[in-house]
Amino acid sequence: METAASLCLVWLVWYILTTYIERRKMPPGPFPWPVIGNLLQMEADPINPFKKIVEKYGEIVSVSFPLRRCVLINNAKLAREARLTRKDDLAGKIRSTMYPGDVIFGERDVICSDYGPGHVFRKKVLSLGLHVFGEGIDKAEERVNHAIRNFVNEIEALDGEAFSPKDLLSRSILCQIWEWVTSQKLSLLHPKVKQLVEFNDRISKLWAQFSSAQLIPGVSHLPTTFNRELREVVQTRDGIFGHELQNHRQTYVKGVTRDLTDGFLAAFEKEIAKEKGNEIGSVEDIKGLMLDIVYAGSDTTSSVLAWFILYIVLHQDVQKTIQAELDKVVGKDRFPRRQDAQNLPYLQASICEVLRLSRILPVYGTNAIRDTVIGGYHIPKDTYVALHINNIHFDEQEWPEPHTFKPERFLKEDGSFVGWTAKHGFIPFGLGRRDCPGQPLARIMLCLFASSLLHRFSIEVPEGEAKPEILPSDSKLVLSPKDFTIVAKRRI
User: Fold this and answer.
1) Mean pLDDT (the chain, rounded)
2) Domain coverage including residue 160
3) Which of 52, 68, 241, 398 is most exposed, with the fewest beta carbons within 10 Å of its own?
4) pTM confidence score
């Protein structure tokens, strides 16, 4: 016992000294407890667990978790320094910060893979594949019309009955993205759509449930519920995307682009030919790119649209302004088109304000691939440097009355839209090396679904029901609003 106590004391002294030496040049923050880090200082708030820590320590903060060192960036100026000025230093994603995503996505994708030649190659394939598929953007708009009509028809069939929009949105967006990826036009009630909705939901829940204990050697092989569900998700992934990739490889015709998977195959052939025999990637990596598009594209887009509906229900004046704009630009006899967006500044401003307020990803970041400096502070290699969207999108210096829903923030004095990238404090799609490569398609989806909904319907709270609260749903990686019901009345 005396020996054990002595060893523990020696280890404790060593821990305090080494932690102090490491932290003295890093950003300020609470001193971490052994093993558990700063977990005890966090709050039980799924949106803003770091609130008190940030209030105490300021615009850039060091925090620690089991096997993970983190720096939180809390304002736009430092976020841009980190992701733009230091973009080459902050492009990594190591296992301890991405698990279980690295297992689910297979480490051969773009979202979860660490920075290196393989990641750069796959991002080129993804970007070129998106371009080949879309032929610019026009063809992408043509392909979105099927899902929008399904979405509108499903609402019309309800004939004024109250319903929850979240499930309908999830199915509609997945139908659209699945058609983009595979050319298959599915009904909203198709078994494949149900399978994809459940698959996405399980990924989000697993990521949110992740415990640092899973990183302890050997724990990932124990028969826990978490590990069992993780294995099932991986099996489902291989079944869905492995089958589709195999089918596309067998039927692929060079020069013919039926869908995104064909675009990826064409891009892979083009890029791999430049590598001159280097073993930098495999055609099987396309499964990871397909999964990136289906999961990242559908879960985030449907969540943003759910928040959009919630905000316009609670702000009928905003809804009426958007509808007046739609009536003037689109008229009554056709669906809104992509080209209409440039003449719908208030609609775009409203979507941006929803993106700012909803914080679907409250915190996201990357790892330092080498020692670097941010805001004059030393950032050691492998540190997880996170953009704290909870603060950046609510910084009073960037956003007066930050908790108020005001689409006018994104309008110029003449009423025109400022653009998606004009506001330095607005970074819903990330910045730098690891920003979202699917931003153009995401904007098309958001604008077309939102405009089509309000062009055809007025959205209200069901008669006799209390107004829904602006609260997040159960803990998931991507935050969507707590379930609520609405009534969609056909506009005449």
Assistant:
1) 88
2) 83-380+393-490
3) 52
4) 0.91
